[in-house]
Design brief:
Length: about 210
């Protein structure tokens, strides 16, 4: 949110769509990170659509650092599809794209044609030393089927602006598909970060 001179209340809300149903929520968490002039943020609240099976830009930002630095890119949107195929769901794909190289791609299968799926994707892209165009994209996995992308948001967060930053980079990605038939938790990916005692850390873990 924009700069404010007074304290601000941030609320996480939820509700039910059908009055005959009960909604549950747990492990709710809120964190606010102070942005600096080195960080770049933009949003597009419009409800955008495409029927193409090739990438369409929903939002773009330009990172033009005064000096070389590492960045964490966070991209989010609310996605919806106009059709659901049995066995092969119509899906939304979106990813932060930097100079035509895709990072952090995420596919979302839909179970109905009315609800929007709110999702987050991320990528630690290492050092950016020159001006870079970063785009949040979406497309239909079934050519000709309309898909929606609304409330698109992009944030380029400069990591070395923090006093101490222990960053697990893009080599921590595990893009391959993994399956399990276990009813207990199994490990998909583990990353080790050397921490500094007495400091707080924000850990962001995503997977689809």
């Amino acid at each position: 949110f924009p700069s404010h001179d007074t304290s601000q209340s941030i609320t996480l809300r939820f509700s039910i769509e059908n009055v005959a149903s009960t909604a549950y929520i747990r492990n709710a968490r809120i964190i606010a990170i102070k942005l600096t002039s080195a960080d770049v943020y933009a949003e597009n609240t419009a409800d955008q659509t495409t029927t193409l099976a090739t990438q369409v830009d929903a939002l773009s930002i330009t990172v033009n650092p005064a000096s070389s630095g590492s960045y964490l890119i966070l991209g989010s949107c609310e996605a919806r599809s106009a059709a659901v195929a049995t066995g092969v769901w119509t899906q939304i794909a979106y990813a932060p794209v930097i100079d035509d190289k895709a990072y952090g791609a995420a596919l979302n299968g839909v179970s109905d044609t009315t609800n929007y799926i709110s999702s987050l994707t991320q990528a630690a892209v290492g050092t950016i030393s020159t001006s870079k165009s970063i785009r949040l994209q979406f497309y239909s996995t079934t050519n000709g089927t309309t898909v929606n992308c609304r409330r698109a948001r992009l944030l380029a967060l400069r990591l070395d602006e923090f006093s101490t930053a222990d960053v697990v980079g893009t080599n921590s990605d595990a893009p391959e598909s993994t399956t399990t038939t276990s009813t207990t938790y199994v490990t998909k990916k583990t990353s080790t970060v050397t921490v500094t005692p007495g400091l707080n850390y924000l850990v962001i873990v995503t997977g689809k």
